[in-house]
Design a protein that fits this description.
mainly alpha; single chain; about 75% helix
């Protein structure tokens, strides 16, 4: 998560809304990572992590599209 946010930082003006959404998800992702280390996560938590990952992937694709302009 942190590496993805760092990768997107140079495009913070163009991707402000996406970055804000991803920053807001940091807590949930961090909690899920800690829970996984403690023995596992439930289906709801796994679905939330998957949703955030999909949003991160979309932001990275948008960054590529912006860099081609």
């Amino acid at each position: 998560m942190e590496a993805g946010l760092a990768e997107l930082e140079p495009w913070r003006e163009q991707l402000a809304d996406r970055l804000a959404e991803l920053r807001d998800a940091r807590g949930a992702v961090g909690a899920a990572a800690n829970a996984a280390l403690q023995g596992g996560i439930d289906d709801e938590t796994a679905a939330e992590v998957e949703r955030v990952l999909e949003r991160l992937e979309a932001a990275l694709r948008a960054r590529v599209a912006l860099s081609q302009d």
